[in-house]
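Tip: read the tokens left to right.
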């Protein structure tokens, strides 16, 4: 029961991050999946993506209902993101996990600095 409650709380935090910031759910889910569900490093990111997809769809529907979604501006990014996601899904496992973690850490730091300074 405690693991289920922890997972539900982590899911709620990931959903809130996704809804508020448009990103960040994975930063909540990846450590939670490792700690609570004992998902190993190689399966953490795919499992996180599987959980984040419904979160993104819920956020998309809420924003669309509110009329806050600029479809014309979003489409080109959607196409590029789909291609990038497919490429990463096909070839990402060939990249060492440690390198992926370091690259993600640099991207998170870079984004954080941009938001704090900009």
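Filled-in amino acids:
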């Amino acid at each position: 029961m405690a693991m289920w409650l922890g997972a539900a709380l982590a899911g709620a935090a990931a959903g809130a991050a996704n809804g508020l910031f448009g990103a960040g759910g994975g930063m909540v889910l990846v450590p939670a999946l490792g700690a609570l569900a004992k998902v190993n490093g190689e399966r953490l990111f795919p499992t996180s993506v599987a959980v984040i997809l419904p979160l993104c769809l819920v956020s998309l529907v809420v924003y669309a209902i509110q009329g806050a979604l600029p479809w014309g501006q979003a489409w080109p990014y959607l196409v590029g993101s789909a291609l990038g996601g497919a490429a990463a899904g096909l070839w990402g496992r060939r990249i060492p996990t440690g390198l992926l973690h370091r690259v993600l850490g640099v991207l998170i730091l870079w984004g954080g600095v941009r938001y704090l300074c900009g």
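The chain has a mean pLDDT of 85. Helices lie at 2-21, 25-36, 41-65, 71-91, 97-117.
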